Give the backbone structure.
Amino acid sequence: MRAGLSRQFVILALASLVAAAVQLPAAETLPWKAGVARAKITPQGEMWMAGYASRNKPADGTAQDLFAKALAIADKDGSKVVILTLDLISVPRPLRSSLEKAIKDRHKLPPSALMINCSHTHSGPELRTKRVKNSSIYPSVAEQAIAYYEWLEARLTQLIDDAVRDLSPARLTYSRARCGFAMNRRLPTPGGFINSPNPDGPIDHDVPVLRIDGPGKTMRAVLFGYACHNTTLGIYQWNGDYAGFAQQYFEEEHPGVTALFVTGCGGDQNPYPRRTMELAQKHGRSLATAVEAALDANPKTLKGPLRTAFERVDLDYAPPPTRKELEERAQSKNKYEKSYAEALLAELDAKGSLPKNYPFPVQVIRFGDLLTMVALGGETVVDYSLRLKREIKGTQVWVAGYSNDVMAYIPSKRVLLEGGYEAGGSMRYFRTTLHPAYWHESLEERIVGKVHELNEKLGR
């Protein structure tokens, strides 16, 4: 009898253990890997600031540190992308080329695996990759700007290495909300379009958010965007403007989480109201709150595969001025017109002709069939975002401007024909890239056509 009871007890015990094992949750398998890294890039020592030609002295302090941040993402098959965000005025083309080479040599990654976006803060340092022969309207100390650029290039290379080394299992979710302080800044007047608030102009208030979690739904990072100039401030102290404060506030609310900001197609959008530190902080708080709202707004879990494409499309210039016209402009009493004409004459003398087109970068990143990110170069106006979100079907669409090469304003055909600063009036202020004329009106169709071409290629 005892032996029978003992056998029965053993059988029941084993049955209980088997039942318990069946009920235990399986180990979580996360479909992605992600790595995050950050670095402070606030200039040390005296440097001139970027963004406003009217500045007449270098920066005199720091209101908020500037950062570069890197987010590396890999799918289960090992396809990777690195998204690099910068609290800086631009992404110089030579910087993009250098980092392309670095990811190829150090990580065996193609150019399409790197996306670089700048916040376009107007309270960051001037970036120079070389001396500018004609710099009469830029009274900076070139040696300091060049030295900073060389240091930055090395630091960003290391930052990408750090993010790739940090890759570990992750879950990705996408959601979006809205934020309302951006307003179109192209106001029509009898004398043409001027830079002033236009509440009737097109806007894009979307705040797209990519959340990166580790095991146990522990948030590690958020990547978020907004289409608006970072021009609340024009002070002489380093700071990231509203985007810098949005990242700061979110990170303070979520210790250990890295917040990365991506500028959308905000070339013709300004923050309003503006001009004070309090307003920059208020806009930053508003955007950080929108990110929080997005995290609760029915987030969608992303699945692979990860697919990337990157190509350049030639954008033609309108017919350039003749030498005689440039010589006449070089006598102008307007110092900006005079400097621009002198720079073009120097280019003409050195090379015998002026460029006819520019290689414009277009990038598409697909997260399975749920999310498509489009990254466009230049200071892209909002028409591009609104159009691409209408035309790309069957997926959530996130459009970023200010990516991979910020060489000039990129107007739509509508803005180009309307005229004004974003249409081409700003061309005379660029020196890292010297543009001989306005863009040809074919630019919008070439850019949008290339986006569709790359997207269709990735969808096959």
